[in-house]
Amino acid sequence: xxxxxxxxxxxxxxxxxxxxxxxxxxxxxxxxxxxxxxxxxxxxxxxxxxxxxxxxxxxxxxxxxxxxxxxxxxxxxxxxxxxxxxxxxxxxxxxxxxxxxxxxxxxxxxxxxxxxxxxxxxxxxxxxxxxxxxxxxxxxxxxxxxxxxxxxxxxxxxxxxxxxxxxxxxxxxxxxxxxxxxx
Amino acid sequence: xxxxxxxxxxxxxxxxxxxxxxxxxxxxxxxxxxxxxxxxxxxxxxxxxxxxxxxxxxxxxxxxxxxxxxxxxxxxxxxxxxxxxxxxxxxxxxxxxxxxxxxxxxxxxxxxxxxxxxxxxxxxxxxxxxxxxxxxxxxxxxxxxxxxxxxxxxxxxxxxxxxxxxxxxxxxxxxxxxxxxxxxxxxxxxxxxxxxxxxxxxxxxxxxxxxxxxxxxxxxxxxxxxxxxxxxxxxxxxxxxx
Lengths: 183, 242
Fold this sequence. Notes:
The structure holds two protein chains of two kinds.
Chain A: H1 3-25, H2 28-44, H3 55-69, H4 76-79, H5 92-100, H6 103-112, H7 115-126, H8 131-138, H9 142-166, H10 174-181
Helix pairs in contact in A: 1-2, 1-3, 1-7, 2-3, 3-8, 6-9, 7-8, 7-9, 8-9
Chain B: H1 3-10, H2 26-34, H3 36-57, H4 65-83, H5 87-100, E1 107-108, H6 115-126, H7 134-144, H8 158-163, E2 167-171, E3 174-183, E4 186-194, H9 199-202, E5 208-212, E6 215-221, E7 225-231, H10 235-241
Parallel strand pairs in B: 1-5
Antiparallel strand pairs in B: 2-3, 3-4, 4-7, 5-6, 6-7
Helix pairs in contact in B: 1-2, 2-3, 4-6
């Protein structure tokens, strides 16, 4: 693969890959490492992939595999599959809630979603992959992706509501504090 | 298909109509058009998903990640290119290597170069440089002073430099600071990283010089920092800085 083609591939996919990595790894340094490692593997192995349109799925799959390889899966991953289905109805205020919050807070809420749901949910919101491609990238059946999206959205709404209820840290200035302490 | 089944499917329908041609959704979409309750639920779901996608899309990758990926890939391909060298060139390289044995300074080829130094040499040659702030100016003055011996310790406040305008790159997820300075008519670029972020480099003893494409890099470390000075000047000019 020529340098120009590789540069085009990086330009097309490094930002969504980073967002996906950030939702998984929960910190910028590890997310950056995951993206670099993914392209490193592409540079050394992936260039043999003949179908150019499969490159996107291949990159997401490789990043996810590298993430899984990098940490030990715990028992929680299986237990969360038994959660009850999410709420069927979506109050209108939840839509406004997402619009009101800034990207960092929304990302924090997304990072609170259990990893087994978070991975397909992030790929869904990145909008680069269809549910079939998400299933391929995560190497799970299509029906499992749909189930995890449904449950993941329910967890995400709960996480968003919790974050908004907590609100920004309230700073009380010294004079105000003194005033409050007065009887 | 009842409404719960339709909802299950429509949860995977991306906002913006990108899945409109997918026949798997056709039945559920038709049902949403006919059933007002399901239609209202789907409209709210799509609004929520649109807002979430916009928020996620607003997160920008850190500065320098793209460059680190491209440089890292270039470095990773270098050994493959080396294997394609003709035999005579490999022999010439061997002779050159033998001539270098016994020299006081270890000169490393691109194949042996650690990725951080390769990244730095690429940055020094091809990227735009610049920084500002009082801390950067103070350090520049120290570096440009001909009596300053770099290896005897530099007044580097990493956190202050990083937060007050020093040019900061990201390599393998770690911050690398860069300051340009001149001495003896030559231009140099000093790169500084935390030793804890690059333990392999930090654990090596003594300064070393590496050359690539007419540029040289000198690398050393102390307890706090890993330093690499890159320049197109002669390696002797680099040694003189120590």
